[in-house]
Amino acid sequence: MKSIIGTTAILAAMTAASAANAQGMSGDWYVSVFAGFSMMSDAEYDATDNYAGYDEVIFATELEAGPLIGIAVGTEISPNLRAEAELSYATYELGESSVDYSYPGGSGSYSYGDTDGDASATYILANLWYDLPNMGGGTYVPYIGGGIGGVQVEAEDSDDTVAAGQIGAGAQFALGSGFLDVGYRLKVTGELDFASKIEPLVSHNLQAGYVMKF
Can you give the CATH number for the domain in which 120 is found? Predict the structure, then answer.
């Protein structure tokens, strides 16, 4: 992992340690293990500068929806506010590749068909979640929030590590000695520096997990 991943992990650990210090290790600590599906936007790059006489030339490769898994460790730092360090991983099959182009007086597109291979995204994020216990009617506890950190994206023989962030919402339901956590996350990466500059990627993530407190 490159430096931004390491830096984010250190910041997340420091946040958790500070919270523990402030609460004398008497706060509500928890571990969350989750899984789900991730739907990523196409990987696009602008190649206009390489094509004289064209107004715009955009190459794109589809990233088909794939599974995600993750783990998070967190603690309550104030009433209804939780700080959390998250590690998650999602994989995608490469789909159809295409090019869209425009030139003075016209435009067009061309498909290259399916692309062999796959891609993956590994996130390390420091999150803050705000619980809304008065909105669940005692049956569940909804929450909203988000986080910042880094992501390493790999595709075939290329990889890059850039800044990333997420916003999300969900709800927790009492289940056994812990909680069932069902949520949605919108994740955004920075611009990726592969063989060509790939525009920021956006993913829609649906996940469910189990939260164990200690």
Answer: 2.40.160.20
Q: What dihedral angle (degrees, nearest 10) is formed by the CA atoms of 162, 58, 95, 167?
A: 40
CA distance 38 to 203: 6
User: Tell me: the pLDDT tens digits for 20-51?
Assistant: 444 444 458 999 999 999 999 999 999 999 99
> Could you give the number of structural domains in the chain?
1
- Amino acid making up residue 165: G
Element spanning 8, H or E: helix 3-23
What pLDDT does 138 receive?
82
- Position 131 scores a pLDDT of 96
The model carries a pTM of: 0.86
Tokens of 74: 């967190």
Quote the domain boundaries for residue 49: 3-213
**From CA 39, how far away is CA 90, in angstroms rounded?**
9
